[in-house]
Amino acid sequence: MKIVDARVIVSSPGRNYVTLVIEAEDGVIGLGDATLNGRELAVASYLRDHVCPLLVGRDARRIEDTWQYLYRGAYWRRGPVTMTAIAAVDVALWDIKGKIAGLPVYELLGGAARDGVMVYCHASGSTLDDLSADFQGRMDQGYLAIRAQAAIPGLMKTYGIAPTDGQIYEPASGNVPQQDTWETSTYLDFAPQVMAHLRREFGYVVHLLHDVHHRLTPIEAARLGGALEPYRMFWIEDPTPAEDQSAFRLIRQHTTTPIAVGEVFNSIWDCQQLITERLIDYIRTSVSHTGGITHLRRVFALADLYGVRSGSHGAGDLSPIAMAAALHVDLSIPNFGIQEYMGHRDPAGELFSSSYAFRDGYMHPGNQPGLGVSFDEEAAAKFPYEPKYLPVNRRRDGSMHDW
Ligand code: EZ4
Ligand code: CO
Question: Which of 120, 162, 167, 224 has the fewest beta carbons closer than 10 A?
Answer without folding.
Answer: 167
